[in-house]
Amino acid sequence: MTAAASKGAAPAAQAEPVPGPGRRSRITPEREAELYGAVLDLLGEVGYDALTMDAVAARTRSSKATLYRQWGGKAELVVKALRHSKRGHPGDIDTGSLRGDLHALVALEDDCTMERNSALMRGVAMAMHHNDDLRQAFREQLVDPEMGGFREVLQRAIDRGEVRADCPAIEFLLHMMVGGFATRALLDDQPPTQAFLTSYIEAVVLPALGVRTTPTA
Asked: At what angle do helices 144-159 and 173-188 cross, to 10 degrees?
């Protein structure tokens, strides 16, 4: 079964489809990427609360029933679209040093992508305050995997002797990274950039973890 609905699908069916008992449609990676891209476009245009499965179905030429079978609901679909847009995983980066790993993580996204993702994340963060299903999906699909990935990065740094195992800042690495990314627009009215985050890592993150920084010329 494909994700595309027949062109003659009647728009009159208003009942919300209920996900089937464990059976999902098979879609190609290319089609999945197309769907996620359309979801993020809609999210940027109208925000989470105004985004509807009907709008996603229309934008992607899909049936709403297929969307519900594949993703269960709006929260799951939006969060998986956000996760799909992330390039790489912290735990997969291993340059041989903590500095190299964090700099490589920042380099995964160009400045335009960071600006877009920053705006999307701000909107989703606001919506999570009154959408429990979104908050739960965000935690399970994005926060927990990211925390696990950063633990791997830190454990390798500890094993290499770069960071002391009892360093109190270890538990706050993800907080620091997210803080630099999220507050750039709030405090400076500018989007995060590679240059800003790289400087932030050198000035804030590495010193907090006890890693000696190299003065720039």
From this structure: 120
Distances in Å between the Cα of 72 and the Cα atoms of 61, 82, 104, 203 are 18, 16, 34, 43
Q: Return the percentage of the chain with pLDDT > 90, whole number.
A: 67
SS3 55: helix
Question: How is residue 91 annotated by DSSP?
Answer: G
> Of 84, 73, 74, which is closest to residue 32 (Cα–Cα)?
84
Q: CA–CA separation, 147 vs 156, rounded Å? A: 14
pTM score, whole prediction: 0.78
Rounded to whole angstroms, the Cα distance separating 178 from 187 reads 14
Greatest extent of the chain over all pairs of C-alpha atoms, in Å: 67
3-state SS, one letter per residue, for 28-46: CHHHHHHHHHHHHHHHHHH
| Rounded Cα distance, 74 and 35, in Å | 13
Between helices 74-85 and 29-46, what is the axis angle to 10°? Answer: 110
| Paired tokens of 15 | 């009942």
Q: Is 88 helix (H, G, I), strand (E, B) or coil?
A: coil
Q: Give the DSSP per-residue string, 110-149.
A: -HHHHHHHHHHHHHHHHHHTT-HHHHHHHIIIIIHHHHHH
Per-residue pLDDT tens over the stretch 33-48: 999 999 999 999 999 9
